[in-house]
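tmp note - Glycosyltransferase family 2 protein
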Amino acid sequence: MVTISLCMIVKNEEDTIGRCLDSVKDIVDEINIVDTGSTDQTKEVLRRYTQRIYDFEWVHDFAKARNYAFQQATKDFILWLDADDVFLPKDQEKFNELKMNLDLTTDSVTMDYNLSTDQHGNVLTSLKRNRLVKRTNHFQWIGAVHEYLEVAGTIFHSNVAVTHKSLHHDTNRNLLIYEKQLANNVEFSARDLFYFANELKDHQMYERAIEYYEKFLLTEKGWVEDNISACSRLADCFFSLGDYKKELESILRSFQYDHPRSEFCCRLGFYFLKKKELYAAIFWYQLATEIKLPSHNLGLQYPKYATWLPHLQLCVCYDQLGQHKLANEHNEKARQYNPDDPRILQNKKYLESILLKQTKRK
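out:
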């Protein structure tokens, strides 16, 4: 059985780090924590789990801090987490099974990263991350902000998931790092342009965000998933600015990078639904239901756009056309995925009443 070192960087995480380490302490062989300047009780909490605690002067560069953390590992593989991540009990079991069977010739293991869930635990947003890597490969983190782990070789796609459970975060930290780099005339890579644009959008600075998304796409050096995401976020910016023509153009622009994704089909469906062009809306919503989510795609995944949401919207379309039987069929399909959604339950009550009246008339 392989051995595993956990390597983390933290700062002022007293509220979350215990929860994280409780979920992982029994499935790893070593815990290494690099503290980048905590002023709260983080270190006191850490000492309950490990004595391998290291200080690292914060230099506004996440990659440098993570690489230092990786240097402390001594086991076969390195696992990395953030303080607000956890392994749910079912994933702890899957992790132990993975650990028992993992081949030492494997260079990296991907795991799902569930970023958000609904009240029932259904995943709303997820992506895959290279989460467990062979120590002797000396893989490096790259990027001062929104850093990524550059890996190569044999990659195994596991069924283990890490769940993100954020309580709080510094909403201005990343933006300020980028703004400081910009002021110092640091040359942005294509990836930097993309993530800087994301920060601008998240801070509702839509005009500047549009400028940097355009700069990013014009480099033609972006990862395909980031290109597609940039189109989606451009559409969001134009929608917020009330420029619906540009919003539509941004949605359609995504098609040059890959086949239509379900989330874009739903956006087009909504665009035509607002215009009361119901058959066009139906076409796009129906297409969304037929697109399967890729199993090994490292980009963001939005399951609702391929499952219950398009069926709910097809219910709305068919109801407006007076085709209540079809509306009910799609509402029931939506209910299979999302049984407690109040909108779906209200539709069920409304449509069953109409269908019952129609039956009685016969």
